[in-house]
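User: Sequence in, structure out. Go.
Assistant: Echoing your sequence, followed by the structure tokens.
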Amino acid sequence: MKNLTTYLLVIFMVMFWIFRIIVAVCYNLGIDFIAQPMDLNFEVILLFLTFVSVILVIKRSMLGAIIYLIGNGLYFGTNIFNAINAQTGSMLNYMDILFSFIGIILPILVLFDILLDKNRKAHPVDKKTDWFYKNKEYDRQFDERADRNEYKF
């Protein structure tokens, strides 16, 4: 994790994960909150999958981004589809649609970030050593004495 975009996406992933934990706990305790989970059992499974995928995304694994995209796509995608087909005008429904869109867009951005990072991983740039090793001025120059010295033991 060397880019600002990667740090920001991981921070947003963790913040959205904590938000979904709060939503699940409030729903389980019977407290009215901004959003409600569609299915509490699937929400808990998704929370554990999100935790694993956050760790894999931090390690820059493509598998973590794919797990995160499939899990959130299944849960929030069906929520968006059901909300659009229901066409009810309650404020809770609109907030669920908003958080579902965030739940869909965030994994897509994480997947694109890891896909774009593959090029950086294949061709890394290290400013601490590239000035020396990739600079022709500092290449070792042999003088004419180096070829004529014959050491005998």
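User: And one key feature?
Assistant: Residues 4-142 form one domain.
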